[in-house]
Amino acid sequence: MLTKKEKRVKRHIRVRAKISGTKIRPRLCVARSANHIYAQLINDENAKVIASASDKELKNAKGDKKALAREVGKLIAKKGLENKIEKVVFDRGGIVFHGRVKALAEGAREGGLKF
């Protein structure tokens, strides 16, 4: 029987086989730990990170983890728009689209990204 982590890794490999980011439409990659959440805009053609954001960057941020995730989504959207990126491909990293990952996606949409 597979562990929870092994199942997530299998899902992530399956998803990454189907999606990749380009210069025009980069991949919005989400990573989550027990305490923090991270987001990156990645151009897979050149293997370059265009922009990144995490809840560690937020100054004077208060609230629960979902609220921080929403703010990280808005921050990555702002950085993407500064780099003239409006459309992205969303990569949840095999994590269930629920809770903090969903909040980050909603924040990115509020910030102006389309996916």
Order of helices and strands: HEEEHEH
Q: Which residue ranges are poorly predicted, with pLDDT under 50 across at least 5 consecutive positions?
A: none
Q: Sheet with the most strands?
A: 4 strands, mixed
Radius of gyration: 14 Å
Name the strands of the widest sheet in spatial order: 3-2-1-4
Q: Number of helix segments?
A: 3
> Helicity level, as a percent range?
25-40%
Helix/strand-derived category reads alpha+beta
What portion of the residues fall into strands of 2 or more residues? 15-25%
Number of strands: 4
The gross shape turns out to be globular
The termini sit apart by: 35 Å
Indicate the mean pLDDT: 95
Would you write up a description of this structure?
The model has no long low-confidence stretch (mean pLDDT 95). The relative contact order is 0.21. Helix 2 packs parallel to helix 3. The protein has a 4-stranded mixed sheet. The chain contains 3 helices and 4 strands. The chain has helices at residues 4-16, 65-82, 100-111; strands spanning 27-32, 37-43, 48-54, 89-91. The radius of gyration is 14 Å and the shape is globular. A hairpin with a 4-residue loop joins strand 1 (27-32) and strand 2. With 115 residues, it is an alpha+beta fold.
Question: Nutshell version of this structure?
Answer:
With 115 residues, the protein is α+β, with helices and mostly antiparallel strands. Helix content is 37%, strand content 20%. The chain is built from 3 helices and 4 strands.
